[in-house]
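An example makes the point: we print one protein in full, the chain in one-letter code, the fold tokenised, without further comment:
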Amino acid sequence: MTSVIIPVFNEEEMLCKNFDHFENLKEHAELIFVDGGSDDRTVELASKISIVLKGKKRRAVQMNIGAKKATGDILLFLHADSYLVISGRS
């Protein structure tokens, strides 16, 4: 299994825009959001998709927190404004 770790900080707009993408992605991988102290609706939105861990506003710190919680054999670090395309094989 792949664990996708997504460090976030005030990503309300991106999470609204990419909500369906993350919903689809969680069918294929373990999603872990790590919030760096957002003061918008980031935590509320991310928690509708998957688990949200809390950390300090430092991307490396957030990624390490997510990596420690991850259960997958593969760790993939993804920004909230990035897309991961999963396609089937022919």
In short: Residues 59-69 form the longest helix (11 residues). The chain is about 35% helix and 25% strand. The mean pLDDT is 93.
